[in-house]
């Protein structure tokens, strides 16, 4: 819990500094906000044992008012089984990833499924919009909004690529080792529930 509090403070400092750097016109304030941003990176570095320069690359390179990153995950079903893709480390996850700045959420999930599973899909419904840190570990130094979307296959087949090595359909009872930082058993179970309930209401949390 203490580690989480340190992270919350560092994230808040980073957000204040980033907004300040974007809006201020005063050169002295810019120096102060730069120092606040450096302090936030030093806190993260100390707590995570990650080199401070790497923290700055991941955590301190954006401009403008700080907002959450968006991650999309596709729930695709066949014969009451859900599609998972195999990561290069041998673990499995729902296909998906970061939303590109030039794509809508819908366009992005279609792209991600095509890249990771080789499938062409159409979007059926939004299952849930989640605050990642309430569901997935480890907690990151930036906010992430996860959007789970049920999709239907309209064509395609798996092709080898540089992100995934396999794709298969699994029942809830036979899930393989999961990349839980991306999609965990609780979230996959939620997708099964949404698939079985015709009148499903999007979860917002």
Automatic annotation (TrEMBL):
CDD domains: NUDIX_ADPRase. Residues 67-192 form the Nudix hydrolase domain. InterPro entries: NUDIX_hydrolase-like_dom_sf, NUDIX_hydrolase_dom, UDP-X_N. It comes from the Bacteria. PROSITE patterns: NUDIX. PANTHER family: ADP-RIBOSE PYROPHOSPHATASE, DIHYDRONEOPTERIN TRIPHOSPHATE DIPHOSPHATASE. Belongs to the Nudix hydrolase family. This is ADP-ribose pyrophosphatase YjhB (NUDIX family). It comes from [Clostridium] celerecrescens 18A.
């Amino acid at each position: 819990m203490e580690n989480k509090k340190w992270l919350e403070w560092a994230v808040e400092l980073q957000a204040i500094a980033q907004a300040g750097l974007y809006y201020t016109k005063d050169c002295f304030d810019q120096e102060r906000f730069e120092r606040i941003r450096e302090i936030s990176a030093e806190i993260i570095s100390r707590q995570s044992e990650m080199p401070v320069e790497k923290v700055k690359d991941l955590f301190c390179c954006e401009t403008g008012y700080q907002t959450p990153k968006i991650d999309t995950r596709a729930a695709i079903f066949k014969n009451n089984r859900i599609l998972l893709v195999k990561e290069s480390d041998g673990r499995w996850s729902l296909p998906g990833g970061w939303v590109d700045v030039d794509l809508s959420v819908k366009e992005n999930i279609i792209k991600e499924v095509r890249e990771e599973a080789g499938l062409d899909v159409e979007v059926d419904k939004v299952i849930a919009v989640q605050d990642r840190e309430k569901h997935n570990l480890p907690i990151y130094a930036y906010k992430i909004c996860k959007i789970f979307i049920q999709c239907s296959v309209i064509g395609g087949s798996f092709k080898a690529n540089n992100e995934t090595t396999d794709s298969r359909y699994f029942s809830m009872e036979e899930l393989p080792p999961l990349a839980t930082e991306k999609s965990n058993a609780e979230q996959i179970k939620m997708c099964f529930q949404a698939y079985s309930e015709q009148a499903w209401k999007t979860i917002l949390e």
